[in-house]
Specification:
- The protein is an alpha+beta fold.
- The protein has 4 domains: 115 residues, Roll (Mlu1-box Binding Protein, DNA-binding Domain), CATH 3.10.260; 120 residues, no CATH class; 29 residues, no CATH class; 127 residues.
- The protein contains 21 helices and 5 strands.
- It has a 5-stranded antiparallel β-sheet with strand order 1-2-3-5-4.
- The radius of gyration is 27 Å and the shape is globular.
C-alpha cells in the first residue's frame, strides 16, 4: 500500500487508515476528532464504547487494535473499525458533519475495493496525482513502471524470508550504493530532501538506472534462488553493480554525470538565485565590500569560509576542515551527515581533486581508527565509509596521476578495515575497480 493511501483527509482533518483483512479499517479516534464531537476524543470514545454496548453493539467484537503511525512517528496499536462498523459508530455521534462524513467514508472505502478489482484503475489514479503535481507524462510513465519493478523485487524478498522494513532498507541501500555510489539517505542529502520520497525527485535517467538495479537484482535473486537476508544481500550488490557499471559507461561516453542534485523542490530556489545574481551584478565595489563584511560578521563559519577562499592557501583550508571532521567523528554522538557536509563545504573553496581526495581519505581513515578504538560499529557507519571509499576510487580513476600519491594509504585502509557486516569484502570489491582502472 502506498503512503498516500494510508492517510486520507476529511475537511482538513487527517484520518489514519490501514488495509486489514481485505478491507479498510479507520482510526476511531481520528473519526471522533474529525466530527468535532469532543475536544477530548479519547475520553469521548471511551464513554461511547460503553453506550454502544448498552445499545447492543459489541465494540470488543467489532473493533480491532491495529498499528498506525502516532505523532512521534512510531507505530502504536489504535482502535480501528471497518467501513460497516464505522457507519454504526457514527450513528451514535450527534454531529452536523455526520451525514457528509458518511458520504465521504463510503467513497474512500469504495475506491480501494475498485483498485483491488482493477489494478489499472489504481495506476490511473496514481498518474493523475503525479500530473497534478506538475510531472510530465514521460516522467510519470517511468515512475509508475519503477513502482511495478520495485513491487516485483519486494515480493521476491518477502517470499524468500527477508524481513520487511529494516532488512528491506539495508538491501535497498546495497543496490543504491552499487548503482549510484551512495546510500538512499546520502542521495536525499545531495538533493536537499528530508521526508520527501527520493524517487519523486529523480530525473528520467536516475529513474531508469534505479529500475535497472532493482530489475537486475530480481533476476539474480530468482536465478540464484537466493534465500534469506545474507544471500539476498549478495544478489542486491550484484544487481546494483550491473546498473552501476552501465551508469559509469554512460557518464564516460556522454561526459555528464547521471546523479544530480536537482529536484522538484529546487525550481523556485533556482529562480530566486537568478534574481539574487542579477542584483549582485548591479552592486558597486563599495557595496559588495560592505556586504562581505556583514556576512563575515554574522557567524564564524562565514568568516572562516571567506578567509580561506580569499587567502587561496589550500594547506590551511585542508587543515581547518580536517579538524572539523575529526571533532565531528570523534564526538560522543557521531553525526555522519554533518561530517560529509564538511567535505561538500570544502569543495566550494577548492576544485582541485587532490585536495578533496585528501579530505575524503582522511574521513575513511578516521572511520578505521574509530573501529580499532571501539570495535564493531553499526550498519549506517560502514555504509557511509564504503560510499566515501567508492568516491575516492572513482576520483582516482578519473585522475590516475594521483594514484601513486594515495596508493599506500588506500592499501592501509583495506588492511586495517573491520571484517564485520561484510565491510572489508565490500571495500576490496570497490578497490578492485581502482586496480583495473590503474592498469588501463
Amino acid at each position: 500500500m502506498t503512503d498516500h493511501n494510508a492517510l486520507v483527509v476529511f475537511q482538513d482533518k487527517k484520518i489514519r487508515r490501514v488495509w486489514h483483512n481485505n478491507e479498510w479499517h479507520f482510526s476511531v479516534i481520528d473519526v471522533v476528532s474529525a466530527l468535532e464531537a469532543s475536544t477530548i476524543p479519547k475520553r469521548y470514545w471511551s464513554d461511547l464504547k460503553a453506550k454502544l454496548a448498552e445499545e447492543g453493539f459489541e465494540p470488543y467484537d467489532k473493533i480491532v487494535q491495529l498499528k498506525l503511525p502516532a505523532e512521534d512517528g512510531k507505530l502504536r496499536e489504535t482502535d480501528c473499525a471497518n467501513t460497516k462498523s464505522m457507519f454504526r459508530i457514527i450513528q451514535s455521534i450527534p454531529s452536523q458533519k455526520a451525514e457528509p462524513f458518511k458520504q465521504w467514508l463510503a467513497q474512500v472505502g469504495y475506491e480501494r475495493v475498485e483498485e483491488i478489482q482493477n489494478p489499472e484503475l489504481a495506476q490511473a489514479r496514481m498518474k493523475e496525482l503525479y500530473k497534478a503535481k506538475g510531472y510530465s507524462d514521460d516522467w510519470i510513465e517511468k515512475r509508475v513502471r519503477g513502482i511495478a519493478v520495485r513491487q516485483e523485487l519486494t515480493d521476491e524478498w518477502k517470499k524468500r524470508g527477508v524481513k520487511e522494513n529494516r532488512e528491506y532498507a539495508i538491501l535497498t541501500n546495497e543496490i543504491s550504493k552499487a548503482t549510484f555510489g551512495q546510500t538512499v539517505e546520502e542521495y536525499k542529502e545531495l538533493k536537499g530532501l528530508k521526508k520527501e520520497n527520493l524517487r519523486d525527485h529523480m530525473d528520467d535517467l536516475e529513474l531508469i538506472f534505479t529500475m535497472l538495479g532493482e530489475a537486475s537484482t530480481t533476476k539474480i535473486t530468482k536465478g540464484k534462488n537466493a534465500q534469506g537476508f545474507v544471500q539476498s544481500k549478495d544478489a542486491a550488490r550484484k544487481g546494483g553493480k550491473i546498473a552501476g557499471e552501465a551508469r559509469r559507461k554512460l557518464e564516460i561516453e556522454s561526459g555528464e554525470r547521471v546523479v544530480t542534485s536537482e529536484n522538484y523542490l529546487d525550481e523556485p530556489e533556482v529562480q530566486k538565485r537568478r534574481k539574487m545574481n542579477q542584483t549582485l551584478k548591479k552592486l558597486g565595489k563599495e557595496e559588495l565590500y560592505s556586504l562581505l563584511l556583514e556576512l563575515s560578521s554574522l557567524n564564524k563559519e562565514n568568516a572562516d569560509f571567506l578567509r580561506l577562499k580569499l587567502e587561496k592557501n589550500p594547506e590551511d583550508a585542508i587543515a581547518y576542515y580536517k579538524k572539523k571532521l575529526k571533532n565531528i567523528l570523534w564526538s560522543e554522538r557521531i553525526n555522519l551527515r554533518e561530517a560529509r557536509k564538511v567535505i561538500s563545504d570544502f569543495k566550494r573553496i577548492s576544485k582541485d581533486p587532490e585536495h578533496f581526495l585528501e579530505l575524503m581519505t582522511f574521513y575513511v581513515e578516521t572511520g578505521v581508527k574509530l573501529g580499532e578504538e571501539y570495535g564493531d560499529m553499526y550498519e549506517a557507519f560502514y555504509s557511509s565509509m564504503e560510499s566515501m571509499f567508492e568516491q575516492i576510487v572513482k576520483t582516482l580513476n578519473d585522475n590516475k596521476k594521483l594514484i601513486p600519491r594515495f596508493r599506500t594509504r588506500i592499501d592501509s585502509i583495506i588492511e586495517r578495515s573491520c571484517e564485520g557486516w561484510g565491510h572489508k569484502d565490500t571495500l576490496e570489491e570497490i578497490y578492485e575497480e581502482l586496480r583495473t582502472g590503474g592498469k588501463q
